[in-house]
Fold this sequence. Notes:
Layout: E1 6-10, H1 17-30, E2 35-39, H2 46-50, E3 59-62, E4 65-69, H3 72-87, H4 93-106, H5 112-127, E5 134-138, H6 142-175, H7 183-203, E6 208-214, H8 218-234, E7 240-246, H9 254-273, E8 278-283, H10 291-306
Parallel strand pairs: 1-5, 1-6, 2-4, 2-5, 6-7, 7-8
Antiparallel strand pairs: 3-4
The structure holds adenosine-5'-diphosphate and magnesium ion.
Amino acid sequence: MLSRKILLFGGKGGVGKTTLSSALALLISDMGRRTLLISTDPAHSLSDIFGIKPREGKVSVSERLDYLEIDPYRVIDEHIKRALESMEPFVSPETFSQIKEAMHSIESTPGAEEAAVLEELSKIVLENLETYDHFVVDTAPTGHTLNMLKTVGRVGGWLEELLKKRMEAQKFREAGGLKSRDEKILEVLKERRERFSRFSDLLFSRKTLFVPVLIPEKLPIMETGRLIAELERLNLKVEYLLVNKVLPPDTTDSFLLMRKEQERRYLKEIREKFSGLRIVEVPMRERDVEGIKTLKELATELGRRLGI
Ligand SMILES: Nc1ncnc2c1ncn2[C@@H]1O[C@H](COP(=O)(O)OP(=O)(O)O)[C@@H](O)[C@H]1O
Ligand SMILES: [Mg+2]
């Protein structure tokens, strides 16, 4: 795990993605690795878990650990603002207001949020490659994250098309002896294409590991099966499976004994279904995980079980 640059934690809502990704980030930063923990879930909770007031940009937790919560709506707004500014001088006020309206409707388009998160994530990772040894990503629940990862390919193809068209148009203009004001746009598009292709090379290489998190219950097991199948299709590496909130072995309470019996069956199913993976169980604690002290206790336990 420590040989990977990017560690993506994913899974169903509520299973412990934020908790375990934060614990791992704390653990490896305490071992001397410079770590940036990034949340791509619009329902952020890193500030809650670390007990720090939410704020924009990087937040420093300790000497080697920073975290950052990506706000997709801010990213989309900035995009629209920039695009509008670049258009305004060239169109009539009437057309401009129509374009403006159309652009703002993008905000609610399906996929816009995931595309914005991806854009920001790729920037953050590539701009900080030298600053950090590891990027630990606390992702949004399964569906959103898979959409985001699929966007990598789609954005690439879309940019490729756009660039081709732009370049053809420019060739014509140049042949006619006209200097194109599109040059700047072309440059921006080329830079984005370059960035996406660098990021997808990194994402789909051995430098990245996807760590699915689940709890020993029916629906999370089913969802994890679909998640892993999709990740394999996308060619993303999976090696570990974190089974969180496993009940203590020494339960005596009759209610808990029944839960434990059900859990035993699900743990067996997990071992059979995901036999190619290293399955790591994380015990359920007496209380919620909150604040650095409890996170550190969990981090030590997680490290012991992961063997790091
Ligand atoms: N091992 C654990 N023991 C006890 N509580 C846990 C454990 N892991 C997570 N929790 C609690 O479960 C809740 C959901 O965890 P969270 O990390 O926010 O899930 P996700 O990010 O996947 O939605 C939180 O209240 C968290 O404190
Ligand atoms: Mg979360």
